[in-house]
């Protein structure tokens, strides 16, 4: 880490990434502020021992994934169900996207996004973490392997398996939706 960067600058530069990653990994806005605060607290405590052998962002991703894993363990202890990352507190008008598409297309797209989020939460913790880091955070195999302390081959295997499970779950979901739509339209 550069010595001229203050911790406040580090937080400012990386807080959006931390919030986004935590939200995607945990699937819930519940306790998101507390989790992000925990990430930066751990970073602050670890900075004196940070050797600079990797990028600060890689180090920060590792801490973020660890905090998310701790949250998963806490939820399992509390026996809570997973919650979709869709924000039910805002009005539907705020969640609609580009106005050039018709309402039906927008609803279908939103339902598909919710299905992806729901099925993403059903994957194993490691598969979910790798999918989020690769596809949503656009990290390389090497960055993910370093952040999660895994061999690159293991990252590739979990990425492949996670994609396959997600694809199969979504295909099953879409088949079921078509069946329901067909029977209700008869």
Structure explained in plain terms:
The chain has 186 residues and is mostly helical. It folds into two domains: 1-82, RNA polymerase sigma factor, region 2, helix turn helix motif (Rna Polymerase Sigma Factor, Chain: A); 122-186, Winged helix-like DNA-binding domain superfamily/Winged helix DNA-binding domain (Arc Repressor Mutant, subunit A). Helices cover 73% and strands 0% of the residues. The protein is built from eight helices and no strands. It has helices spanning 7-26, 32-46, 56-78, 92-95, 103-122, 125-136, 141-148, 152-184. α1 crosses α3, α3 packs across α7 and α6 crosses α8. The chain starts with 6 loop residues before the first helix and ends with a helix. Residues 80-84 and 94-99 have low confidence and may be disordered.
